[in-house]
Amino acid sequence: MHCALYDAGLCRSCQWLEKPYPQQLSDKQALLQQLLADTPVAGWLPPVSSAQQGFRNKAKMVVSGSVERPVFGMVTREGDAVDLVDCPLYPASFASVFALLKPFIARAGLTPYNVARKRGELKFLLLTESTQGGMMLRFVLRSGEKLAQLRAALPWLQQQLPQLQVISANIQPVHMAILEGDEEIALTPDQALVENFNQVPLYIRPQSFFQTNPQVAAGLYATARAWVAQLAVSSMWDLFCGVGGFGLHCATPAMQLTGIEISAEAIACARQSAQQLGLDKVSFAALDSTQFATSREQVPQLVLVNPPRRGIGAELCAWLSQMAPEYLLYSSCNPTTMAQDIARLPDYSVSRVQLFDMFPHTAHFEVLTLLTRKGGTA
Q1: 211 annotated as belonging to a binding site for a ligand
Q2: What percent of the chain has pLDDT over 90?
Q3: Is residue 87 annotated as involved in ligand binding?
Q4: Which of 155, 124, 123, 120 is nearest to 137 (CA)?
Q5: What is the mean pLDDT of the chain?
Q6: How far is CA 314 from CA 66, 288, 349, in A?
Q7: Domain with residues 58-190, CATH architecture
Q8: Given 241, 269, 317, 333, which residue is catalytic?
Q9: Is 269 considered catalytic here?
Q10: Share in percent of the chain as helix, strand, coil (round to 5)
Q11: What is the dihedral of CA 5, 8, 10, 11, to 10 degrees?
Q12: Do 130 and 160 touch, CB atoms closer than 8 A?
């Protein structure tokens, strides 16, 4: 992938850009094998590759500059604004949205926030696109002071960009590098962006997490579904479930499935999907995953975990070791913490591992690992 921003030294987010893509995959696989070197792995599956550009479904733009000439991108440590609207990671469909948002900011009188002066209103723009063509736009504001102006100007923007199905304002009053605050204000009747992976309907709400590489994510979910189908389990937990992507892919009408996620926004999405699919034996709850699990006296046949980068941790590993479900399916965006967790589960063997390159041109990747209780089969 060629990137003029990288060549000019303006953005180095893609640290591996100069490395040929096949070498990137090879290096990631080597790192994964090194992390699991002390753990026997019965089956290594080939890594799943990604498109090299245009694969991101989400842009997180710092807004700087002036109300008449806003800059979307990032601000360097020296305070210089870098325009990233031409980043080749974004799909071509983003360009027309960014182009119209610049005059819109002037129409709405949304002065970009100045970090040094602690003045201004508009901090970030967050744009998400579904594979179905709809988009979600979020304005992250310092306060609600300009909300009336924003609402008044929106009809013009919606007329120009009808694909903006979900629009909201997030209030983030803290003078820190925090992307969003707790308060979300709906600016459109619809507040869930419709997505669909592998004939499974999914919904993205403003404050719910969703994978940023939809093509690879769809492959990850499909693989999990295939692995679980081979196990023929009748009960399952989906911990750290987000909007329910894994559980909804793996569930069958006869399966008892419980999904747990701390975000109420994400759980609302998961429930909507389950209802649409007619899965009567599936339930979702907005709870802490570790607290939920460790307070139970029984376990299902399979526990799927998809934790944040910190992993599932010693407490949950100890509880899983004690309760001994037949299978653990571990999806990780941080193979280092995953390897640490697997080391805490000595009563399980690693049946298969597969790398999914969710983040090309960086050292990051996703991994799916099936662990089987020793003495069992997979």
Answers
A1: yes
A2: 94
A3: yes
A4: 124
A5: 96
A6: 49, 15, 18
A7: Beta Barrel (2.40)
A8: 333
A9: no
A10: 30, 25, 45
A11: 50
A12: no
At 176, is the pLDDT very low, low, confident or very high (cuts 50, 70, 90)?
confident
Q: Is the pLDDT of residue 115 over 90?
A: no
Q: What is the pLDDT of residue 3?
A: 94
**Helix (H/G/I), strand (E/B), else coil: 373:** strand
> Mean pLDDT, to the nearest integer, of 97-104?
98
Distance between CA atoms of residues 82 and 72, nearest Å: 7
Residue 78's pLDDT band (cuts 50, 70, 90): confident
261 is in an annotated binding site: yes
Q: Is 240 annotated as a binding residue?
A: yes
Q: Domain segments of the chain: what residues? A: 4-52+213-373, 58-190
Quote the pLDDT of residue 150.
98
**Structure confidence at residue 177 as a pLDDT band (50, 70, 90):** confident
Closest CA to 301 of 367, 344, 252: 252
Cβ 330 vs Cβ 263: under 8 Å: no
What per-residue confidence (pLDDT) applies to 378?
A: 54
What ranges make up the beta strands (E) of 198-337? 200-204, 235-239, 256-261, 282-286, 302-305, 327-332
pLDDT of 314: 97
Is 354 annotated to bind a ligand? Reply is no
Phi, psi of 96 (to 5 degrees): -70, -30
Establish whether 241 is an annotated binding residue.
no
Q: What is 4-52+213-373's CATH topology?
A: Rossmann fold (3.40.50)
User: Identical fold at 4-52+213-373 and 58-190?
Assistant: no
Q: Which is nearest to 305 in space by CA: 240, 372, 374, 211?
A: 240
Q: Could you tell me the two tokens for 169?
A: 């304002």
